[in-house]
User: Fold small monomeric GTPase from Cnephaeus nilssonii.
Amino acid sequence: MGWASWTPPMHEFVHQGIMLVYDITNEKSFDNIKNWIRNIEEHASLDVERMILGNKCDMNDKRQVSKERGEKLAIDYGIKFLETSAKSSTNVEEAFFTLARDIMTKLNRKMNDSNSSGAGGPVKITENRSKKTSFFRCSLL
Assistant:
């Protein structure tokens, strides 16, 4: 049973950010990104942060999807774009930190807009590389 055969109802989750990942060596995975975007637009909150990632950029010799096509798709939907490689760790950390910063910026803006009484403050993301943990709070669909 693969990921494509199990799609959880999106209303079961509270989404702050979603990474849409396709395989640059697989045209069909790129084509499916539009379906995922449509699903997100229909079921997720309107202000969810999104990012498109073209993965396996270390396999350029087997590329089926150009970087320009990925960039154009992201521009068409107003979504950030990066090419990554999980194998070589290219842009993986940057992708997560970029999405996290965008989420926190949006949350800070909302908090400042709705919290004129001064009962809260901005949230800041800091990077602490000395701590190692194997627990991640990400949902992989």
